[in-house]
Amino acid sequence: MSAHHLKLNLDKTELLFLPGKDCPTLDLTINIGSSVVSPTQTARNLGVILDNNLSFTANIAATTRCCRYTLFNIRKIRPQLTQQSTQVLVQALVISRLDYCNSLLAGLPACAIRPLQLIQNAAARLVFNLPKCSHTTPLLRSLHWLPVTARIHFKTLVLAYHAANGSGPSYIQDMVKPYTPAPALRSASAKRLAAPSLRGGPKFPSAKTCGFAILAPKWWNELPLTSGQQIAYTPSGAD
Q1: 151 contacts 239 by C-beta, under 8 angstroms
Q2: Is the whole-model pTM more than 0.85?
């Protein structure tokens, strides 16, 4: 940073240590000038809270808390709003937060995603001004809102599309490669993606088996052939 004439703000500098499997706990510190930076369990980067286990529990909790507060404020003025204006407010202030960087949550268990789904359910009830016990499946369908898990799935596939077509960041493109079978097969024209080998990998879900490089090709190749070709050329929004 000194070579590029940049100044480091030590008050905002955090050290996040991500231990590997069976890695012993290390008491790490970094000395920068006269300051000592100690490890922290969570750190915020571009609005996303990363924890040292990459479970995203803290990020989901923070998103849920912020959305619940926003819904509370909208509910107070709901009698003065129309259904359409309420939907606009909810989509701009709540649903957008649920969608922000949601592809990072790909591969998490349903119990981890459930708090976000409860927020979306509450948002749908607020749009239609219905009580808490109302069934939300027809409401989400009427609003054309995909459930949270499906939105995460969709966002991952959109990133895979951009990476496969060369319009995504280079670090994403490096993780997605087209499937090219050795012999000339009909599958060569199906625009499938090559799935990385997990030979010798862990038997249970982990960061290695739930990362973008694993899930994006897997989910892309599970698309029906006609739908996969359609998405490959004409991606659309999920709202």
Answers
A1: no
A2: no
Three-state SS string over the chain comes to CCCCCCCCCHHHCCECCCCCCCCCCCCCCEEECCEEECECCEEEECCEEEECCCCCHHHHHHHHHHHHHHHHHHHHCHHHCCHHHHHHHHHHHHHHHHHCCHHHHCCCCHHHHHHHHHHHHHHHHHHHCCCCCCCCHHHHHHHCCCCHHHHHHHHHHHHHHHHHCCCCCHHHHCCCCECCCCCCCHHHHCCCECCCCCCCCCCCCCCCCCCHHHHHHHHHHCCCHHHHHHHHHCCCCCC
- Angle at the Cα of 152 from the Cα atoms of 147 and 157, rounded to 5 degrees: 120
| pLDDT means over runs of 10, the chain (239 residues) | 86 83 76 83 91 92 97 96 96 96 92 96 97 93 95 91 82 78 59 69 49 84 65 40
Structure tokens at 143: 């609003």
Domain ranges, ordered by start, for the chain: 10-49, 56-146, 152-233
Report the phi/psi class of residue 210: left, alpha or beta, with left for phi > 0 and alpha for psi in -120 to 50.
alpha
